[in-house]
Amino acid sequence: MQRLNLYKLHVMILLFLVSCSSGPTPPASNLPPSASDLDLLGLTRLCDMMDIIDNRAHKHTFQQAAWGSGKEWYTETSTPVRKRQWLFFNDDKTLVAVVAAYPSGLNLEPYPVLRDTLSQLTPAREFFEDSNSLIQGTQPNTILLYRTGDEKSTTQYLIREGHNHERQLLVAVIVLDPYEQLLDGAQKKFMTQATNMKDSTSSSQSPPTQQTTKFLATQQFARGEIALFESCPGEKPDIAIDAYRQTIQLGLEDTKRLAEAHHRLGLALRNKGQLSEAKLALEESLKIQQYSPRVLNSLGTVLVQLKNPVKAIEFLEKAITLQPNYARARYNLAEAYESVNRSRAIEEYETYLALVANIPEEATRAALAKDRLEKLQ
Fold first, then answer.
1. Ranges of H-type helices in the chain
2. Which end of the chain, N or C, is surrounded by fewer C-beta atoms within 10 Å?
3. Which string of DSSP letters, residue by residue, matches 269-320?
């Protein structure tokens, strides 16, 4: 009897395991491979505040300098390998990027996980360490820039590949996405610390000079992005509003980006509950780029919140005319129609649900749409 009970227990466990394993397979990640066994940050993490890092860094002496409207810290260590490191902080004393350069090159042989990750990536750029050697008839080393990352940050690896295919890491960058355009690992500033480059191959990728209006405006736009979209934990609408206003005041040469700065300002003001000001900011965006479905949708949602569904419908209809499969605009249009045209609201909710049937990110909103649809029918 004891053996029979034990047998039954084993069968039940087996059936349980089979039932668990036969569940739905989780969706594949759309992020690139990023695993690494090379610890570039130590105890430091992006989004850490300056005072926290300062308290931890009692063993290191940082040289401090301005970085546009933010701060740049620099240090050099020799153990376990020689490394030069920069920490970049924005106006709010938040760590937004870390750059490491290895003057002697870092042999990748002891890092099989990182080597496997790099083998799965396609180089974003490729150039020669010393193009003058081509003129002299010798084969220069190749430098490859790889990009990977997660939902909110990007990691760059600059790899030197020699004639014997030995690989060495020269520069690594870990940066919150909006700041990447200001911190390219192939910048001359970093490359000259890791190589003996005799030409300016990498300098073409350098950002504008730190004190130019272009640099400062781009830096403020990035500051607004990480606050608005919570790249670092916590809602920070006041910071986003201040950053986008500074961006607009400084000006951007690219009119599309300037229109987007007004758009983002409108979103930040909406999140703060300042709906009338949000409406004005979104209208400014449309003056620059009048056929943007996203801005038309944002203005429509603000008008719904301002209890003006008729005007909201006008802008939301324009958005879906320009982009018929714009699911979010369909949902907002249905919401606007609820108090104006019941049958159109039902139609738009049904269209929205058809568009998002296989989109996990829309599951919560889809559930709301189904609930509203049931009440309207």
1. 2-21, 50-56, 112-119, 132-135, 188-194, 213-228, 237-250, 255-271, 275-288, 293-305, 309-322, 327-337, 342-355, 363-376
2. N
3. HHHTT-HHHHHHHHHHHHHH-TT-HHHHHHHHHHHHHTT-HHHHHHHHHHHH
pLDDT in tens, 141-196: 899 999 999 999 999 999 998 777 789 999 999 999 999 999 999 888 898 887 75
CATH domain 213-376 topology: 1.25.40
Residue ranges per structural domain of the chain: 50-205, 213-376
User: How many angstroms separate the Cα of 131 from the Cα of each of 103, 139, 171, 175, 227?
Assistant: 19, 9, 19, 29, 42
Predicted TM-score of the model (pTM): 0.85
Q: Which of 76, 45, 74, 72 is nearest to 62 (CA)?
A: 74
Q: What is the pLDDT of residues 291-350, one digit of tens each?
A: 999 999 999 999 999 999 999 999 999 999 999 999 999 999 999 999 999 999 999 999
